[in-house]
## 1
Amino acid sequence: MSAEPSPAIALAGPTASGKTAAAFAIAEALAPALPVEIISVDSALVYRGMDIGTAKPTREELSRVPHHLIDIRDPLQAYSAAEFVHDATRLMAEIRARGALPLLVGGTMLYFKALFDGIDDMPAADAAVRARLEEQAKTIGWAGMHAELARVDPTTAARLAPGDSQRIQRALEVWHVSGKPLSSFHTIKTEAAGARPLSVASLFSLEPQDRAWLHQRIAQRFHAMLAAGFLDEVLRLRARGDLHADLPSMRCVGYRQAWESLDGLYPMASLPERGIAATRQLAKRQVTWLRGMPGRQPIACDAPDATAQLVRAVRERVLGKSI
């Protein structure tokens, strides 16, 4: 007898770990017994017109399996973890009502954590506080601002690079507006945010055993993005005239480095090296977040049979059989 299907399955992993291909393999393996709909857990894929630099699934891929939370925001707009939790919770209920399995796939670990643990309502952006922080940064630099953050919120400072100006600024803004560290909001449990919508035991994690394997894939993908016209994509975004480098969309890895090169802050020839280095740093942060998530079932994404392992594990979880 088959087990009751899980309310949802989550598939997380660092950038370039093979999540998209793995998600399609899961969907194909479960069909036709259990249709699958994919919910993107990616803070970059929400943006329209940002396709190459986000490694967004192609139109053909999107047509193979229903997808959600892709191309839902203009790059001028923000999209918060709280909005994601609201949207993902609603979508999971709708997908289950259709008799399908919600498959949450992505690498934005804050979204996963917010979905699993809940998240308190953080203070809204405060333009005046942000402007003061910008002026302070001009005087002491972002490394100095990082040191200031370490004084008031050591937990958040420990997971941010000294050059991560956007997140350092936001963490300090939260501190000045609320008097509480940003890390305190990230640890609010579901009692403050509603019932837990997803079982932690449903989290599968693609994690490399050999970091060099992932680094090679990151480099290959960045060069492939450039060959596919990534710079032209960024030029089209700049040509709109209403976007700027401080928007969350334009601070996505790759876009930030391309924008800075086009602004003349760095030689264009250094873009591949800088983009690859930033992507590697992102992957390192993602793996660190993952390893702190209890109940995850890790799969070595660099194993020759990684996809087969994952499919067997998911089938066992949702259908009660591994073949």
Note: Strands lie at 9-12, 36-41, 67-68, 101-106, 203-207, 297-300.
## 2
Amino acid sequence: MSTGRIQFAEQSGTFVLKFVGEVRLTLCSALDATIEKIFTALNFSAIVIDLTETESIDSTTLGLLAKLSILSRQKVGLLPTVVTTNPDISRLLQSMGFDQVFNIVDRPIPCPDCLSDLPSQDQSEDVVRSKVLEAHRILMGLNDSNREAFRDLVSALERT
């Protein structure tokens, strides 16, 4: 499997995040910063998360994507779209309850040519732990299965 990266573009109020390869915790600080950037934009019309080249995605990243959707609905009343053509990724999204917080489609959406990699961000261990905890709390709020799956992890992170 390849090292992961997240690419980003904004075009005419549409924000596109493309996840490539193995998307893991190491990319979450940059993703979280980009989520904050999206919601400070004045001309906001849509969010598209392209997972067509995603090989794997960890639960912290999924939690941040759920955060993105929740903020989008709260702040601008929009349900983001996730594009996935990988059956394994599609099953994972369904099992996590993402069909409740995203429009999930299986046909690639033309992506702007101006996608660029998110810059890496060095964060302290405490900041990273806080982001992991927040992401998993959000996932737990999506459904009972997630609540059960991540209860022990969240409890452990709360104790540290």
Note: The chain has a mean pLDDT of 87.
## 3
Amino acid sequence: MSVLGRWRIVEMPDYTDDYPDMMEPAYILFEAGRGEFAFGCVTGQILGGGDTASIAFSWTGNDEMDEAQGDGWAELQPDGSITGAICFHNGDEANFVARRETSSTAC
């Protein structure tokens, strides 16, 4: 299995419970060699990664409308979730737990 796909961030232990979903439901998306994420007032474009059970990546984006950048990692867990961190250059580390999003279609 791999971390590719869209994941709903369900836990961010370093933040208050309501912060991750402040602007929209918190998520992280991994595609081949790229992706994106959003939590709280932070958004980012992921550079790097691959079709594996664990990846390391760099990112650029915004934190409360200020330019931000850093790196991160994610690793598939035995229960099907992923754990990881989004790290800010010279700053904080945002640890997370995420579960794969399931899609459904309405009839």
Note: The mean pLDDT is 93.
